[in-house]
C-alpha cells in the first residue's frame, strides 16, 4: 500500500477524514446523550415503582437505589479513564456503552427493589466511563484551539438525553409501563455500538508499537501526582466536587427552595425548567468564550458569575425578574463544571488525559451526592430560603478559588493557560 493510500484509510477501514474526525464528535455526543437518559430516568419511573405492590418500595429505599446508581458511576469514572489511557479510547468507549446498555435493559426485568438497585449500580460502572472517554476523544480529534467548544457542545447531548427521556416518560409509562423506559434507553446501543466499532479511530498505545502510537504508562494515574501536577490535580478535584454539588443540589431542590420563598408549585417547577434552559445556553456560549480568552480565565469567570447570580436568587424580584435571575444562574452554574472538564483535557499530557478527566469526574460524583444532602439539611432546618442560595453561592466561590490554584505546567496546551 502506498503512503497516500495509508493516509486515506484509517483504522477499521474508515476513510481517514471521516473515521478520525467527522465521526468522533457525533458518536461521542450520542453516547453522552444516553448518559443523559440515566440522569432523569429514575425520577421518571420512581412514582410507578413506589406504586408497585409487590415491591413494597418506600422513599428511604428509593434513596438507597439512587445512591447505588451514583456510586456505580463514581467507581466507573475512576476506573474507566486509566483503562482508556492504558488500552485505548475506542475499546473503552465500546465496552462502556455495551455494558451499561445491557444492564439498563436488565433493569426492566428486575423482580424487586434490591435486584433493581444492584443492576443500577452495575450499569453505573459503564455509565461513569462514558464521559471521561468521550471528552478525551473529542479533544484529541477536534480542531486545534477549539477544546472549549468541543467539550461544551458534547455536553449538550447530556441535556438533550435528559429532556427526551422526560418527554418519553409522559407517553410510554401510562401506555406500556415503566419497564419499557429501560428497554428504550438501551435500544440505541443496537445501532450505536456497531458504529463505534466501525468508525471510532484506533489509538494504539506506544507499548504496542506502530506509527502514530501515543505515549502510555503502566499506571497513567501516576502522572496526576508527579512532575509538578499534584497541586493542579488537587485543585481540579476540588473544583469538580463543587461544580457537581451545584448541578445536583439545584436540580434536586430548587423547586422546594422556591416554594419556601413563597412561590407556587407551578412557578417553582417553571423556574427549574428555566434553570435548565439557561444550562443549554451557557454550554453554547461558554465554549466559544473559552476558545477566545483561554480556558483558565473563562472557568474562573464562570464560577465567579455563578456566585453572583446564585446569591441574587435570595432576593425576591418582582414580575419576571426572578425568571431572568434563574436563567442567568443556569447559564453559569452548569457550564462552570463543563469548563473544568475542558480545562483538564488541555492541561495534562495525552497519555493521562482520560485518567485525569475520569478521576476528577469520579471525585465530582461525591459532590453530586453531597448537593442533595446539603439542600435537604437546609430545608429540614427551615433556612433553605434565603440561606440555601447563599450556601450554593459560597460553593461556587470555592470552585473559582480552586481553579485559581491550578499550576501552569509546561506541557499544558496554550489554550489552557
UniProtKB/TrEMBL annotation:
<dbReference type="InterPro" id="IPR011701">
    <property type="entry name" value="MFS"/>
</dbReference>
<feature type="transmembrane region" description="Helical">
    <location>
        <begin position="118"/>
        <end position="138"/>
    </location>
</feature>
<feature type="transmembrane region" description="Helical">
    <location>
        <begin position="27"/>
        <end position="50"/>
    </location>
</feature>
<dbReference type="Pfam" id="PF07690">
    <property type="entry name" value="MFS_1"/>
</dbReference>
<feature type="transmembrane region" description="Helical">
    <location>
        <begin position="385"/>
        <end position="406"/>
    </location>
</feature>
<keyword id="KW-0812">Transmembrane</keyword>
<dbReference type="GO" id="GO:0005886">
    <property type="term" value="C:plasma membrane"/>
</dbReference>
<dbReference type="InterPro" id="IPR020846">
    <property type="entry name" value="MFS_dom"/>
</dbReference>
<feature type="transmembrane region" description="Helical">
    <location>
        <begin position="356"/>
        <end position="379"/>
    </location>
</feature>
<dbReference type="InterPro" id="IPR005829">
    <property type="entry name" value="Sugar_transporter_CS"/>
</dbReference>
<dbReference type="GO" id="GO:0046943">
    <property type="term" value="F:carboxylic acid transmembrane transporter activity"/>
</dbReference>
<feature type="transmembrane region" description="Helical">
    <location>
        <begin position="321"/>
        <end position="344"/>
    </location>
</feature>
<feature type="domain" description="Major facilitator superfamily (MFS) profile">
    <location>
        <begin position="24"/>
        <end position="411"/>
    </location>
</feature>
<feature type="transmembrane region" description="Helical">
    <location>
        <begin position="150"/>
        <end position="172"/>
    </location>
</feature>
<feature type="transmembrane region" description="Helical">
    <location>
        <begin position="178"/>
        <end position="197"/>
    </location>
</feature>
<keyword id="KW-0472">Membrane</keyword>
<keyword id="KW-1133">Transmembrane helix</keyword>
<feature type="transmembrane region" description="Helical">
    <location>
        <begin position="92"/>
        <end position="112"/>
    </location>
</feature>
<dbReference type="InterPro" id="IPR036259">
    <property type="entry name" value="MFS_trans_sf"/>
</dbReference>
<protein>
    <submittedName>
        <fullName>Predicted arabinose efflux permease, MFS family</fullName>
    </submittedName>
</protein>
<feature type="transmembrane region" description="Helical">
    <location>
        <begin position="234"/>
        <end position="254"/>
    </location>
</feature>
<feature type="transmembrane region" description="Helical">
    <location>
        <begin position="62"/>
        <end position="80"/>
    </location>
</feature>
<feature type="transmembrane region" description="Helical">
    <location>
        <begin position="298"/>
        <end position="315"/>
    </location>
</feature>
<feature type="transmembrane region" description="Helical">
    <location>
        <begin position="260"/>
        <end position="286"/>
    </location>
</feature>
